[in-house]
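Tokens for chain A. Residues wanted.
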């Protein structure tokens, strides 16, 4: 089959591309970064360099594809993230309509449908005659890397600010590890390996025939403090804790970081929902097929990075 993958060589798109290439499929990878062209070709795919906001470019990249994987990266240049996400989603929809792609997998998030605004998933409802699978993954294991500095300095974890603002894989990270999250502590949640998300995406790209399908993706469920202990044990800090802060403290921290007001409010809202356990209830209601990669497996990789001196 011919596949077009967006997301360049990101945490999901790279293992997804590698998997599809190994299976013998023809894969085209879209990236906005020309410097990624060589690396994309090195894993056996074709590079298409351009912007997903350019519907003409996107249509050319989608032409002839049997299926496409669609995600939208966060753009901090956009003060109106809701509008940005909707424009990008509409660009995808117009390109899919214009080229007759029969199957699409859209990366979203497990709380995307619960937010008061910013749910760009709904834009894909415009696609008639297309098999669309919306992937709703939980918190990425790889986001723990964003709290590495905080763990080194304080010995506890603040929320790495995973944001599924409109769905579609948006990611916001506090790289200094200075911002805490308004869920954590003994809150139960689901974590997921990007590799397991890639496996789920590949399966849906190849097999989904439903006009509209929602698939939740998770690898392991536990409390935030249990996750902190697993990470802590791997790095020699078994006492590691995940600090929970209030909604007010979270909002103040985001505003101090000069985040646009609407975006900050949406992030606080999303994490409040997780703190209340609502996405977890929906996750279990969907009876998901669990991934294979455990947090303890990821913790070994994290420990290597943690103990590697900075350049």
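Reply:
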């Amino acid at each position: 089959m011919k596949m077009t993958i967006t997301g360049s060589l990101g945490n999901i798109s790279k293992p997804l591309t590698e998997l599809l290439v190994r299976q013998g499929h023809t894969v085209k990878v879209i990236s906005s970064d020309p410097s990624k062209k060589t690396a994309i070709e090195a894993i056996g795919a074709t590079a298409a360099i351009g912007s997903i906001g350019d519907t003409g470019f996107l249509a050319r990249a989608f032409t002839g594809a049997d299926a496409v994987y669609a995600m939208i990266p966060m753009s901090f240049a956009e003060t109106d993230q809701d509008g940005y996400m909707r424009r990008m989603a509409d660009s995808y929809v117009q390109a899919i309509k214009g080229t007759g792609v029969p199957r699409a997998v859209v990366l979203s998030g497990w709380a995307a449908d619960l937010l008061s605004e910013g749910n760009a998933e709904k834009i894909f409802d415009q696609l008639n005659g297309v098999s669309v699978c919306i992937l709703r993954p939980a918190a990425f294991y790889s986001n723990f890397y964003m709290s590495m500095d905080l763990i080194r300095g304080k010995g506890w974890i603040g929320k790495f600010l995973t944001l599924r603002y409109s769905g579609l894989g948006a990611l916001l990270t506090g790289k200094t590890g200075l911002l805490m999250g308004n869920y954590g502590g003994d809150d139960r949640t689901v974590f997921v390996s990007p590799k397991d998300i890639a496996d789920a995406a590949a399966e849906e790209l190849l097999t989904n025939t439903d006009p509209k399908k929602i698939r939740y993706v998770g690898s392991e469920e536990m409390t935030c403090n249990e996750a902190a202990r697993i990470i802590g044990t791997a790095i020699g800090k078994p006492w590691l804790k995940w600090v929970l802060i209030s909604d007010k403290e979270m909002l103040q921290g985001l505003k101090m970081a000069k985040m646009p007001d609407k975006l900050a409010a949406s992030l606080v809202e999303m994490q409040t929902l997780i703190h209340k356990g609502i996405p977890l209830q929906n996750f279990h209601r969907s009876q998901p097929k669990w991934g294979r990669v455990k947090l303890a497996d990821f913790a070994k990789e994290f420990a290597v990075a943690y103990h590697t001196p900075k350049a």
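Confidence is low (pLDDT under 50) at residues 159-179. The two ends are 42 Å apart (CA to CA).
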